[in-house]
């Protein structure tokens, strides 16, 4: 009788010992997957949270674009230091990505004005489906969103490009000039401030002046020094 009682007790003890002695192995935390974030909203999400609302009297201006703007902050950070200028450039982005980012990276930051620089990456893309009309539709949508949120709009005439080093032979100069013509007309019709980056940088081939560019597409420090005063003038005009 005692043996019958002892056996279950031993089994219970062994089970308890096994549970205590076996280390618990936790599954590794799943790595966050951003492949659904086509517009790269994650790029500035943390910075936006830390930024907070504008201070009293602050006339915040958001620079929305791609590598032209992102490189500017990296190469000439002093232009943005001490000014209420928020750089939200993401290298390689096309106009529909800027449109998707517009709420998070512009509207939610409550700026007084936004500078929209869009179109070149669309033109240099490899899909073959981009037209000036699709670029302009995205620009129009961003302008309408800005106006609905009482944000002044500064539209940019794009920088000249004679050829893209990564996509030789697509002859972008004429396409950019054609797009700029539409941007200028749209800005005039809708009484928007135009920021002309094309004219001060263009050479006799309708590309960028060699002394002002890294690769024929992106400005160097000297190029940004030319862009700075025309940008300041456009901001002053928009905010007056």
Automatic annotation (TrEMBL):
One of its GO terms (molecular function) is phosphatidylcholine lysophospholipase activity. Residues 70-226 form the SGNH hydrolase-type esterase domain. Residues 1-18 form the signal peptide. SUPFAM superfamilies: SGNH hydrolase (SSF52266). Pfam families: Lipase_GDSL_2 (PF13472). Keywords: Hydrolase, Signal. This is Acylhydrolase. It comes from Hufsiella ginkgonis.
